[in-house]
Structures are given as C-alpha cells and as structure tokens.
Design brief:
16 strands; single chain; about 425 residues; alpha/beta; 4-stranded parallel β-sheet
C-alpha cells in the first residue's frame, strides 16, 4: 500500500466537497505557506467568437474558485494560475481568463494569471537524450497543483493529470509529443512530469466526457472529485472511474514501468467513496468503417468515392481540434452522388495510397510527409497547424467539392443546444460570482 492515499468524493456543495477531498488525502501535507504555488487547470481551447460547450472539456471555474479560496484560508498567498492553451483558438488568454472568472480570483486573493505562450520556455534535458521546452513559470514554481478534467481522449484513452501537464510545453514540444516510434505520445506524455514539482493532483469530475478531449465529444454530469499527492495513483483511480484499467492505457503503463508502480488498483488506498460505486464505462473512440474510409456514419449515409483515413496518435492537438469539423464539412458536401475518388490523410505517419484521383493532405505534417509521394495524382495540400477551415472549404471548392461552412456553424449551435435541456448542465459553472 502506497503512503499517498487517493480521495474519491461525491460532490454536493463544491467548496465543502473539495475540502473533504483534500482532507481525506492530506492534500496540503507537502506544501508550505510560503511556497510559490502554480495551479494548472485544463483550458486546452476556448472559442469566444462562436458557440462553445465547455462541459467535460475545461476545468470548471467552480472547482478553481473553491481551491483558491481554500488555499487562501490555509494561509497560502503566493498563488498563480497558468496554462498554455492552443494558441490558434486562444490568441488572447486574458480574455478567456476574464470569461472564466479568474480575474475575480486575482482581485480577491491576489492570484497571478500567466499565459505560458507569452512567457519564456526553458530547454530541459532529462539526462537520457530526452529534451523538451518547459514553461519557466512551471519550472520555477515551488509546487504545482494540477487540476485536470475527468475525460476520455480519442488517442490516449484518458486525459487526466499526467496528460494535462502537456500544457506546460511550447508549441514545438507539444507537436513533438505526437511523434512516431519512441516519440509516440504514450512514450512522451509520461516523461513531462519528471521535471515538474507536482505536489497535488485534483481531478475535476463535475462533468465527464466521452470521445474527448474536445467539445465534439458527449458530456455527462458526474459530480465527483478525485485527489492525491501521488499523480499516478490519482490517474489510476480516475481511469478506473472511466472504466479503464491502467494496463489498458499505454501512457500510464509506461509511467508505471518506468517508476516501479503497481498497476493493480487494489494496491492503492482509496478513501471516501468506493471506486466500484462510481465506475461507469465512458467510450473514448469514434467508430470507423472497417475499410478505413471514414466514420461509420458516412458509410450508413451511403457516402462513396471518399476515403478519410482515421486519425492516429501522431495527429497533434491543433489538427485534432479541427478534425471533426473537417468531417462535418465533408458531410455537408454530400448530395447523394459519389465523391470524385478522394483520399484524405493526416498526421505524421500516414502515407497517401495509390489509386485515388485526388488526395487531401490535412495539416502541415501530412503535407511535409507526402511532399514527394509518387502515389499522389493530384495533391490538395491544406497547410497550417492547425489548418484554417475556411481555406479548407475554398481549396475543396476549387476541386468541385462544395462544402457548406454554414453547416459547421450549425453544428456548433447543435453542440451547445444539445445540453440546454440536460439536467445539471450549467454554463455558469465556468464563471465566478
């Protein structure tokens, strides 16, 4: 049995439930009141010009507010909230921080707000040839409190505490995490934490998300909090709540092997609720056709002449965020007739196949990889990291494929609208009174 317990609490009142959660795992035991504490939420992306449902995607402001309040009540005063979100969707983190209510935490408790993307990064050598660029504010913190969301991930199966620290990397290192071979994401993710002073992980499970990590997945109200001073143990319990054993999650398996952890949940002390009482399988993956020609829904609609190859682990967050919207746009172009024998490839390892009249190279990595691919008759390169969807529509229109950008906007409205009648779904959970 490991010394650091994991607490699992049902949420009634967020403030009181978080207090209980922290008490059960002795969460502040490794902290000193004069420590410089960095709080790292999950704010992977935010769309403030278009409809955006944050349910199960973004750390709730309710949890952030309660955490900062509790820290202040315990005498911690040197507090910073920091994140390095996807720049293409959050060009100005200050606007998002204000939307999320973090500016009120700044006013009430003197919390500093930092955008890692606007700060300095330090090239960090891990001593074995592994090197990444980490945010200086994260490296210079005395302690980090990591506050991820309880959600699935369509490449990594789960996105919890260890995965959430990817937000401390600069864009180049984030992209490198989605490599191939020994740089594949399940090998890269578990290394990041090794140089960061993470003292406490709190998994925000007010909502959970299937087929995450973005808003195209389906959210559910869950109302649980998970916390531990041991990052792996916390993720182990979080993964179990989502219905996955550690051995089913490659990046957790790799972390456990590297650091000598048991992957058996029975070897860990869980205080509060029983895991089995809250455990419910949440699907992480999108169903694809057996022939790898596109989502199962495309096949059911009778879409032919189009082969969209399924994303793999080398597709980085930039392209992942616009991948489902890309599918919506292709769907909007279907008018009952076959597409003109088109293949779509993405990521760093998918080579275009022969036998297609047109090949869409979605994202700069696919463009670079297939630059001199002899299998390609007519390339339609969609450059960008991530690609611009309006330019994507224009490029396809030139090839006679008429996508309707308004369908994408209607899809965003649908994503928000499908939760309006759901009990317990409140946008105000991402604001602070």
């Amino acid at each position: 049995m490991l010394q650091e317990a994991v607490s699992l609490v049902r949420v009634t009142d967020v403030y009181e439930s978080l207090q209980k959660c922290l008490s059960l795992c002795d969460g502040f035991a490794g902290l000193a009141t004069n420590d410089k504490i960095l709080i790292k939420p999950n704010v992977v992306c935010w769309e403030y010009k278009l409809p955006f449902p944050p349910y199960g995607v973004i750390t709730t402001s309710l949890v952030m507010d309660a955490l900062v309040r509790i820290l202040a009540e315990h005498g911690f005063s040197d507090l910073t909230i920091g994140e390095g979100a996807l720049q293409s969707l959050i060009p100005d983190a200050n606007v998002v921080y204000e939307t999320l209510g973090y500016k009120k935490l700044q006013e009430r408790y003197g919390v500093k707000l930092v955008d890692f993307n606007q700060g300095e990064y330090s090239s960090t050598d891990y001593g074995d040839g592994f090197q990444i660029d980490l945010a200086k504010q994260a490296l210079e913190a005395d302690k980090i409190i990591n506050v991820p969301v309880l959600k699935t991930h369509n490449q990594a199966k789960v996105s919890l505490g260890i995965k959430n620290l990817k937000g401390c990397l600069n864009k180049k290192s984030k992209q490198a995490c989605h490599g191939v071979g020994d740089k594949e994401l399940s090998q890269m993710f578990p290394r990041i934490i090794e140089k960061l002073p993470v003292a406490l992980t709190i998994i925000d499970g007010l909502y959970t998300l299937e087929k995450g990590p973005g808003p195209t997945g389906r959210a559910f109200r869950k109302d649980v909090l998970i916390a531990s001073r041991d990052s792996f143990a916390c993720d182990l319990v979080g993964s179990a709540i989502l219905g996955y054993q550690a051995k089913e999650v490659e990046h957790l398996t790799n972390y456990a092997k590297r650091h000598g952890y048991s992957m058996d949940l029975a070897d860990y002390e869980v205080k509060g609720e029983k895991v089995t009482d809250l455990q419910e399988f949440v699907d992480y993956d999108w169903e694809w056709s057996e022939a790898d020609t596109g989502p199962a829904g495309f096949e059911k609609r009778g879409i032919t002449g189009l082969a969209i190859r399924k994303y793999d682990s080398s597709l980085c967050t930039g392209c992942s965020v616009v991948y489902n919207p890309m599918l919506i746009l292709f769907s909007s172009a279907f008018k009952g007739e076959p597409f003109p024998n088109v293949e779509v490839v993405s990521g760093k390892q998918r080579l275009a196949a022969e036998g297609f009249d047109k090949t869409v190279l979605f994202g700069k990595c696919a463009c670079h990889l297939n630059k001199n691919n002899p299998n390609i008759k007519k390339a339609i390169p969609i450059w960008g990291c991530p690609p611009d969807l309006e330019k994507f529509v224009e490029a396809l229109a030139e090839e006679g494929i008429k996508c309707n950008y308004k369908e994408y906007l209607r899809f965003l409205d649908y994503l928000v609208g499908r939760y309006k009648e759901e009990e317990g779904f409140r946008l105000k959970d991402w604001s602070i009174e």
